[in-house]
Design brief:
The structure is a homodimer of 129-residue chains. The first copy, chain A, has five helices and three strands. In chain A, strand 2 and strand 3 form a beta hairpin. Chain A has a domain of 65 residues: Winged helix-like DNA-binding domain superfamily/Winged helix DNA-binding domain (Arc Repressor Mutant, subunit A, Orthogonal Bundle), CATH 1.10.10. The first copy, chain A, is mainly α and 129 residues long. The structure holds a DNA duplex (30 and 30 nucleotides).
Chain lengths: 129, 129
DNA sequence: CGTAAATATACCTTGACAGGTATATGCTCT
DNA sequence: AGAGCATATACCTGTCAAGGTATATTTACG
């Protein structure tokens, strides 16, 4: 099991991670909230633990699992290289739509007026560094 | 081949995506830049295309492939739920380190002074909405 | 029109991983 | 100590996807 990407490729593991984002949980709690067999939960938790996505502490017979940030940050870092791209993409699209708006603003009825909606992408904050 | 996560689980596919972030490329260019056999490149490109990660246009015998933003944005959206978490995590860590600094600031030599370094996480900009 | 280049597809083999069943380990409480 | 709960591990099996080899398709060009 190599990269963080293979880890989060598994739907059940993603479900577990999403569950843990709110608070730490025991195996049993995860088991019944997600409705999967205990043995499955345990095995996925093992994978997640060995990959550093979660850590556990012992509470009597239970083990409490909680998230660890690093591996997810790693995914985020990989994704970073594409953000500039899709910002550019959305910008270009907007410019295109603006042009269409303008070109159309002379003639007839004007049935569909386009609205500027908040596309909350990261705009250049000079963080190019 | 279900989710976008399975698509990017494959290292060669991630390599292709990273390559395409700079500009569109032909199959042959990808092939030799990444040093993998043409048949492999073509098959991965097929997967990427069917998943919407790339699109292609025909240029004589070549096909030029370029990125499409949507699937990567989807990954980004999934990741979003964890950002608040790891921001909180880093904040807590910083507070902890601050406390250690303070507690240590009475006594002896003070060999290692900790420096505030720029952890460029997304700080609350009220974008909770 | 035939050949060569660029790319796609078909088929096969192999390996890896997820899930199931059964069982082991560890802890608590009486 | 023994019973019972919570969790982990071992083993087996089916599935699926990646890579290799061979071949098909498309296009340019002499």
């Amino acid at each position: 099991m190599e990269s963080v990407f293979e880890i989060i490729a598994e739907p059940n593991r993603r479900a577990i991670l999403s569950l843990l984002v709110s608070s730490e949980q025991s195996v049993g709690e995860i088991e019944c909230q997600l409705g999967m067999p205990q043995t499955t939960v345990s095995k996925h938790l093992r994978v997640l633990r060995e990959a550093g996505f979660v850590e556990s502490t012992v509470d009597a017979q239970r083990r409490l699992y909680r998230l660890r940030p690093e591996p997810l940050q790693e995914v985020d870092m990989w994704l970073a290289q594409f953000r500039r791209f899709w910002s550019a993409y959305v910008d270009a699209l907007e410019r295109h739509l603006d042009r269409m708006d303008r070109d159309q603003s002379t003639p007839t009825k004007q049935k569909t007026r386009r609205k500027r909606r908040g596309t909350n992408r990261e705009r250049d904050k000079g963080e190019t560094k």
